[in-house]
Write a structure and sequence with these properties.
Largest sheet: 7 strands, mixed
Helix content: 25-40%
CATH topology of the largest domain: Aldehyde Dehydrogenase, Chain A, domain 1
Number of domains: 2
Shape: globular
Radius of gyration: 24 Å
CATH superfamily of the largest domain: Aldehyde Dehydrogenase, Chain A, domain 1
CATH architecture of the largest domain: 3-Layer(aba) Sandwich
CATH class of the largest domain: Alpha Beta
Number of helices: 16
Strand order of the largest sheet: 15-16-17-14-13-19-20
Length: about 475
């Protein structure tokens, strides 16, 4: 079955006439469908539609914008099982996680529907009599929404919902290996009655679609979630024409364990945050920094939790870890496993795949745990983006903080401690956008989300902070003349 682009309220074949196969990572020989492989001409058409629609949609009243988002949320709830099944089939996530992703998308969509009513103006007193001064938040314009493959439903909604709430129009570009979820969302957008051209979907590669969108003079801003390397390129290209960016990039998120009694509970929280989506999350806990005096006991608890995790296709009963999303991701994780084995680190749990041939049996890789990892090891420094968890031992909180902040990334961190003073010490000094105390890196659908350093640039997404990307400020000075 073939799937076309969605442009100006209609499904349209790509100008290239080409389609790309989308495969099931649990069964790589199973083709899920053929999806549009687009080019610059398709991008131009979608941007023109968004530009034309923006002229009218920018003044759509808040109840209209909120109504569109609430109808979309209703439809996602209605089709939640179908959306979850698509996520499992094209991304590999286990069914429970896929259902959670859809529920999160609904929650974020509903929150932003409320935000449509809260776009306010600010009044200022004047130094001259008879002048009113009001600063208005106005829609930025047509925006490009470039989404990753690891959250193929919630991330597009996370970008689209605030765009609609604040009066922007959009061109969506999903990841090339997970386009089906965005097609399903576009079908629901169409059913919800969004005006033609307000939301457009163009599928294809990063160079043929993503780069063209970033460079397009009629795109006012680019919201991108993905690798730091790609995000840096988008930032550079957008800066050349002074377009706005919102970048959610990589992470090397520490779990810091310092004087914490419930090590069993900490291990459960850490393992869950480390291995959800097979570790393919920007907010995954990807290194553990633990006080030497507690290290042996924590590693024992982590090993027990890790060994008990069930690796299977997402639809299997009790499955906790599905396949890697692609052969490239599978091979990347295998390379880091070999790096760890060649280092001085101790391999506590070997998660290397037991499948005979990944290209027929699926890209499965179990969770792996390394202990006594050196602070300069690639395991401790690089964003692996897979189910590999290194443990680093430290002598005191100061050393833990120094190692945590030595990373080029600054997205999230978790701190496990029973001492309020230590919690405050780390919360105020960690160089990251989000700190979680005594639990994993789970965010909420109404709270700003983002990072610093190489983990992000621009306004944080989720919650009211998204307004900083999707709107501009217009200040109006008005002289009230006295009647003659």
């Amino acid at each position: 079955m073939t799937f076309d682009n969605y442009i100006n309220g209609a499904w349209q074949a790509p100008s290239t006439g080409r389609y790309a196969a989308n495969i099931n990572p649990a069964r790589p020989q199973h083709v899920l469908g053929e999806f549009a492989d687009s080019a610059a001409a398709d991008v131009d058409q979608a941007v023109a539609a968004a530009r034309q629609a923006f002229a009218g949609f920018r003044t759509a009243p808040p109840p209209q914008r909120a109504g569109l988002l609430n109808r979309l949320a209703d439809l996602m709830e209605r089709d939640r099982d179908q959306l979850a099944h698509v996520i499992v089939k094209e991304m590999g996530k286990v069914l429970a996680e896929a259902r959670g992703e859809v529920a999160r998308a609904v929650a974020e969509c509903r929150f932003m529907a409320g935000e449509a009513h809260r776009v306010g103006s600010s009044g200022y007193s004047s130094e001259r009599p008879g002048i009113d001064i009001v600063a208005h938040r106005v829609p930025l314009g047509p925006v490009a929404l470039i989404s990753p493959w690891n959250f193929p439903v919630v991330t597009p909604i996370r970008k689209l919902a605030p765009a609609i709430a604040y009066g922007c129009t959009a061109v969506m570009k999903p990841a090339s290996i997970t386009p089906w979820s965005s097609v399903k969302l576009a079908e629901l957008i169409d059913e919800a009655g969004f005006p033609a051209g307000v939301v457009n979907l163009v599928m294809g590669g990063g160079r043929s679609v993503g780069q063209v969108l970033t460079d397009h003079p009629d795109i006012a801003g680019v919201s991108f979630t993905g690798s730091t390397e790609t995000g840096s390129g988008i930032y550079e290209a957008a800066a050349k024409r002074l377009a706005r960016v919102q970048l959610e990039l990589g992470g090397k998120n520490p779990a810091i364990v310092m004087r914490y009694a419930d090590l069993k509970g900490a291990a459960r929280e850490i393992a869950s945050a480390a291995f959800q989506a097979a570790g393919q999350r920007c907010t995954a806990l990807s290194r553990v920094i633990v006080l030497e005096s507690q290290a042996d006991a924590l590693v024992e608890e982590l090993a027990a939790v890790t060994r008990a995790m069930k690796v299977a296709e997402g639809f299997a009963e009790g499955a906790q870890i599905g396949p890697m999303v692609s052969r490239d991701q599978f091979d990347r994780v295998m390379r880091y496993m070999e790096i760890g084995r060649s280092d001085k680190a101790k391999l506590v749990v070997d998660g290397r795949s037991t499948v005979n041939d990944p290209d027929t049996d699926g890209y499965f890789h179990g969770p792996a745990l390394f202990d006594q990892v050196e602070r300069d090891s690639p395991l401790a420094v690089d964003e692996i983006f897979g189910p590999v968890l290194p443990v680093l031992r430290v002598a005191d909180p100061a050393e833990a903080l120094a190692i945590a902040n030595s990373s080029a990334y600054g997205l999230a961190a978790s701190v496990f401690t029973d001492e309020p003073g230590l919690a405050g010490f780390f919360a105020s000094r960690l160089e990251c956008g989000m700190v979680h105390v005594n639990h994993g890196t789970a965010s909420q659908p109404h709270v700003p989300f983002g990072g610093v350093k190489n983990s992000g640039e621009g306004a944080y997404s989720i919650g009211p902070s998204a307004c900083g990307f999707y709107t501009a400020t217009k200040v109006v000075y008005r002289l009230d003349r006295m009647p003659d």
